[in-house]
Amino acid sequence: FQRLRVLAVFALLGLFYVLPWINIAGRQSVLFDLPARRFYVFGLVLWPQDFIFLTWLLVMAGLSLFFFTALAGRLWCGYACPQTVWTEVFLKLEQWIEGDRNKRIKLDRGPWTREKIVRKGLKHAVWVLFALWTGYTFVGFFTPIRVLADAVLTLSTGPWETFWILFYALATWGNAGFLREQVCMYMCPYARFQS
Where does residue 138 fall: left (phi above 0), alpha (psi -120 to 50 degrees), or beta otherwise? Predict the structure, then answer.
């Protein structure tokens, strides 16, 4: 099951981080252009009057979620939920930098030495960079990602893009780095009615 979880993490994060960079018919494969009120999804152009199709798609996705949960248990929570996926990445980064669970407990209980400061600092630096990449990619679904890349590299992003990149980076860093399963137990509405 752990191999399936790792496979799901790679597949889902791969889709999330790669889809905005793929062009189909000369356009970004998935782009929700809110100012122009056009939504590009794999070569299709959807207009606001086409939202009835999105509504049906979301209804089918919701019913599928309930069906697969009844059929296979915590399939969504254990493998596909964004909170689970990003928490898995943050845990692996933490394990890679600070060591296994026993080493992390020993490090946390020990005094603040140079090694502890370096390891904790490196962990949070890597977490923040990954969270910023996540925020940037998420905004890239609403602002053409290549235009956004140029704006980020020249430090000329607009106030809304800057706000949302930082907001989603902070949410990712806080939820996956610190809150972890507490998000599932106390904040997730799906966990309330799953049983």
Answer: alpha
* pLDDT digit string, tens, across residues 24-41: 988 999 999 989 899 998
Q: What is the mean pLDDT of residues 59-71?
A: 85
DSSP 8-state secondary structure symbol assigned to residue 178: I
Taking alpha carbons only, the member of 152, 146, 177 closest to residue 164 is 152
Which tokens hold the place of 148? 């956004």
| DSSP string for 13-46 | HHHHHHGGG-EETTEESEEEETTTTEEEETTEEE
Q: Are 78 and 84 in contact (CB under 8 A)?
A: yes
Burial of 114 (0-12, 13-18, 19+ CB in 10 A): exposed
Structure tokens at 24: 């189909």
DSSP 120-151: HHHHHHHHHHHHHHHHHHHHTTTTTHHHHHHH
* CA quadruple 125, 130, 134, 135: dihedral, nearest 10: 10
**What is the pTM (predicted TM-score) of this model?**
0.88
CB atoms within 10 A of CB 166: 15
Q: What DSSP state is assigned to residue 184?
A: I
